[in-house]
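ok, trying the design again with the full structure, not the truncated one.
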């Protein structure tokens, strides 16, 4: 019969036996050891604990890095011409609607909108829209109906 997993077990006895991951996790919770990671990582932590050593830290991986929380992007729900463009704004439906109302035409070019937000950081929407109107390049057809092209 297999002995139960306890804090007084010799590390070599622990490593010689087969344990279910659920048993390892339960022991970790009782001993206040991290129960995250693969079964092999948990077993290594328990063996180090039984040797009265500091458990080896869990190796970082891409998935763990993705779990880090980013600062939430704060974009106002309503806009005015005096609204200042923030550092971390994204193009939202409310912003597109506001720009459409101000410009009198739909804003469908996502790249141009991102550029407007990047270049306009720290400026008011009024200033950014004035710059947009001055620098915007539009393709129009000439009298023949053929779009101009570069050679």
């Amino acid at each position: 019969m297999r002995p139960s997993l306890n804090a007084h077990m010799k590390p070599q006895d622990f490593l010689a036996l087969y344990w279910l991951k659920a048993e390892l996790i339960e022991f970790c919770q009782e001993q206040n050891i991290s129960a995250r990671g693969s079964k092999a990582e948990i077993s290594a932590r328990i063996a180090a604990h039984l040797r009265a050593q500091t458990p080896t830290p869990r190796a970082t991986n891409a998935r763990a890095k993705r779990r880090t929380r980013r600062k939430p992007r704060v974009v106002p729900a309503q806009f005015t011409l005096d609204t200042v463009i923030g550092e971390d704004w994204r193009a939202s439906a409310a912003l597109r609607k506001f720009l459409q109302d101000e410009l009198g035409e739909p804003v469908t070019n996502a790249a141009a909108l991102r550029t407007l937000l990047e270049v306009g950081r720290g400026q008011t929407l009024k200033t950014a829209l004035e710059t947009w109107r001055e620098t915007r390049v539009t393709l129009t057809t000439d009298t023949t109906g053929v779009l101009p092209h570069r050679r």
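Keeping the full-length input from now on. The chain has a mean pLDDT of 78.
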